[in-house]
Amino acid sequence: MSTVEMEVFSNGQLLVLTVLMLVGGEVFLSLIGLASKWSKLRKQAAHKSRRVEIHHVAELEMPPAAAADIDNPTSTADDETSKSLEHVHDTRLRRDAVRSLFFVVLAILLAVHVLGAGAIVAYIVHASPAARRTLRDKALNVWTFAVFTTVSTFSSCGYMPTNENMIVFKQDTGLQLLLVPQALVGNTLFPPLLAACVRTAAAATRRVELRETVKQGGELTGYYHLLPARRCAMLAATVVGFLAVQVAMLCGMEWGGALRGMSPWEKVSNAVFLAVNSRHTGESTLDLSTLAPAILVLFVLMMYLPPYTTWLPFGESSSVKDHPREETQGVRLLKSTLLSQLSYLAIFVIAICVTEREKLKEDPLNFNLLSIVVEVVSAYGNVGFSMGYSCSRQISPDGMCTDRWTGFAGRWSDSGKLILILVMLFGRMKKFSMKAGKSWKLS
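Now predict its structure.
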């Protein structure tokens, strides 16, 4: 979130901001954590190796008479030695696994930034005269812009060296599509990319520690971003599902609104770019204040969710202990697919914003998001509070309007009232769905 215009910064200041964004990024910080753990495990392995060597020396120098006084001296010494050697082996395996993972993450970090910045420069120089003209008018160096934008996008900072963020490039679909994969692999899709790279490295090098890392995942290395293969697959599917919902809503509600004046391909590209950036990256090609309130509520929900939110119906929550035997697999799958209470409230608010979208534009002082949220939560909790409706708050006064002692919902359309009835029924029976959403992993 910028508090000053970005174009006031000089080229050198932009480079300083670039370094700050890089070292503050999630992947870079996790790389520092891996380096620290590697150093710690290396010291532990060296210390345990010295202890085993000292133990062997002590056995060799023990007098025969002293050894005879001990019951079963040979078996006891062998057991202790084997345990010590096993501990040393485990520590060395973890050390080697952490070291290999460190180099894999470092390779990903370098590859994304080098290839990303190079691709942006090549695109601007050889394929986009409009982008070259924009940078020239703003006195921005092409390489500075490319490196700054790549680091900001991968680190999920959302800064751009232009005052208008990406709005100035809203018709440059090529640049948008170059930034989309950088935003994804730097945030929501980093675990699937990391897992694929680890598997590729294990197959190419056949190193023992990499094969064990593939088998045990984060349990061996303690690396938070290294998720199991099934979790990675479901994470990717969840991300695609969220993107599809957002793109469909943006195209459906803003095709002739905020996206007006663009070609069909440009509209789709802008919708995809906004949908991707709503998950923590924050770059925008449109003025968010011009979007429909329903889309803003959806964006709020997407921003609320952690980056690795995953629908995982085949995890630990599906154990036999948690479900009666008479329940079929289909029933268990249906129960695990249900959402949390907060998710349903957000969906209801979005639906009402869709049905009342015209009044939200024409009468914003009465029909605003806060009033709708209060009405929906009040209906869900069977409370009955209402913000009410006042003719005096109308921006364009209607001579036929009269104040009545009715709730705010009394001014809604029939569709909106029907949705509110469903909210009240759902809230009345919420005890039957309070334990829902077990298959959604918010971590």
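The CA atoms of residues 1 and 388 lie 35 Å apart.
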